[in-house]
User: Fold this.
Amino acid sequence: MAHGKSQRLRFKRRRNGRTDYRRRMRMLRGGVPRAVVRVSNTQVTCQLVEFGRGGDSILASVSGNTLAKHGWPADASRKSVPACYVAGYALAKSAIAAGHDSAILDIGLAASSPGSRIFSALRGMVDAGLDVPHGEEVLPDDDRINGTHIDDSIAAAVEAAKKAIEGA
Assistant:
């Protein structure tokens, strides 16, 4: 039977390119909950996840579909930069209400380009008061957060959603 490094069968999620186990273990060793941000073809999903022996447990979750109850327009995109900001803001407010005040950002295998939608969600978390280690140079600017590059009505929708989240 072969024992070499190239003949060894890797974990299925590693073979399919879904999980970087080295990065995951580095994050789990800290014992701090992870703020997981994923952007799909239709929406953004932000979750606060804690590692446990039986598997990860989700402490708080906000997705693009749940943004409507926070006042996000039904016809607006649920994966744009402003939508990601509002989702991150809502996640941080619910996490703080549940007694979690810090987290580390988990972007998975997504590209970490400055000003991206993932870092827009991070800025929403930071603006809401969640302590997440980050560098200021990766966060998007105010014009992109407010959606002025998309439409002027999006800026009003972002402010209305923030007020609805504050009131909830």
Summary: The helical segments are 12-15, 21-29, 81-97, 117-128, 142-146, 152-167. The radius of gyration is 17 Å. The chain is about 40% helix and 15% strand. The CA atoms of residues 90 and 165 lie 6 Å apart.
